[in-house]
Amino acid sequence: MVPVMDKAALEAFLAREFPQVRDDFVIEEVAPMAVRVRMVVAERHLRPGGTVSGPSMFALADVGIYLAILAMIGPKALAVTTNCSIDFMRKPAFGRDLICEARLLKLGRVLAVGDALIFSDGMEGAVARAGLTYSIPPTG
Amino acid sequence: MVPVMDKAALEAFLAREFPQVRDDFVIEEVAPMAVRVRMVVAERHLRPGGTVSGPSMFALADVGIYLAILAMIGPKALAVTTNCSIDFMRKPAFGRDLICEARLLKLGRVLAVGDALIFSDGMEGAVARAGLTYSIPPTG
Amino acid sequence: MVPVMDKAALEAFLAREFPQVRDDFVIEEVAPMAVRVRMVVAERHLRPGGTVSGPSMFALADVGIYLAILAMIGPKALAVTTNCSIDFMRKPAFGRDLICEARLLKLGRVLAVGDALIFSDGMEGAVARAGLTYSIPPTG
Amino acid sequence: MVPVMDKAALEAFLAREFPQVRDDFVIEEVAPMAVRVRMVVAERHLRPGGTVSGPSMFALADVGIYLAILAMIGPKALAVTTNCSIDFMRKPAFGRDLICEARLLKLGRVLAVGDALIFSDGMEGAVARAGLTYSIPPTG
Prior knowledge:
- By secondary structure, chain A is of the alpha+beta class.
- Chain A is 22% helix and 36% strand.
- In chain A, strand 5 and strand 6 form a beta hairpin.
- Strand 3 of chain A pairs antiparallel with strand 3 of chain B.
- Chains A, B, C, D: This is Hotdog fold thioesterase.
């Protein structure tokens, strides 16, 4: 299966539907069943001490899998997150962007399952790992 | 075991350490191994259509368990979230605050485990359920 | 909502459909959206040292939520586990049965979500906590 | 880092410490921070209809990450599973062995985090995906 939406189409969708977060995320690559998304880390994502907050990392994993689904099924369906399990493994590097490698493991008619690795730009080991499930509403 | 920090002490801690989110959360009740926290829902927590976003609900569950731990062990230790598994079950009611009922199931020397139910104020069934693990650093 | 299957009906279903595990589980109570199930711990459930194994605790949480769903929707539907997140919190007491308190938090048309607390018979704190999601196939 | 235990050493450990499951698992490959383990599927792992049961898949993911940890830190430490989040994505093929690709994402002093993909031998998409956390007790 090949994606039906490319980088430009996904960015246009994000800007139109989620204007409040469009400046947070840059789509770096779209591939079959996978996307890479950069989170442009700003003051509002930080905890005291300069670490990116847990909710911000959750948001990045969530948007990564969401975009990977949309890339495959197109912008018409409204997928909804039903479950996320996330492990926070390392402290992100101070003041660096985060990179999310998201891939789909299952793209069913009703449920999609993906996992995401989040890296601190320039650091080797992943800072977080997440598995997410989305419910895909029936079209029609 | 009884809490070593009460509502006022937890609120002062939140205001001092997390000034950027202090207006989001109101601590409603502190009990042994449990707290109830209200999230004052504002524009910045919403998705298009007026639903509270997933990351905002994650943040509420996270802060709920965090405060339940602090209430028991005091403000000196710096607990860190290591895992969260969250189920999104219902769409929150439009424009309503969220209420988080957080309780600790285990408060060990090294790990604490808790779960949280999140309700949309005035709605019956929980909108989300989360289990969280925190790593508690050694005091020294 | 009241259960459509009682203890006797659930036990008969378990004996008929899952003969290989019917001796492992005793249904102790059935209530709206909840069941209590005992696991009769035997040699085959143990790890060296006499602790109940993780997979056995997983199996108990799984059967608990499964029976809670069946009690509400009847024996005709074939619910399938799609996700389980389980925290192992304490070592079960040596040679004691396990008790699972399972409750449903959501019973939708397509997905059911429940959580389970597992206790070692006679011990106070829960030994494990699990959240499970089941996919409910369409009838008809 | 290179493994300190190879295939033969891990198999001898498994046979000695877990005699009751040693026939279930074959270690196929050991690499830095990763192992591949085969589950030799037998009658006792099946649900009616011939599908491998959820608890059996959980057991395979658990043993896979456990062996990946032991391979790196040696047989002396007793690692304990503290959390597992598992997604069941596809029905395993009838009567086929399962293959678990386990890798460690973090191997800390106190906690290890890994993920596992489980395949039905000969089938393309993964049947299950799991993330696991282990607590590593202090040596000394």
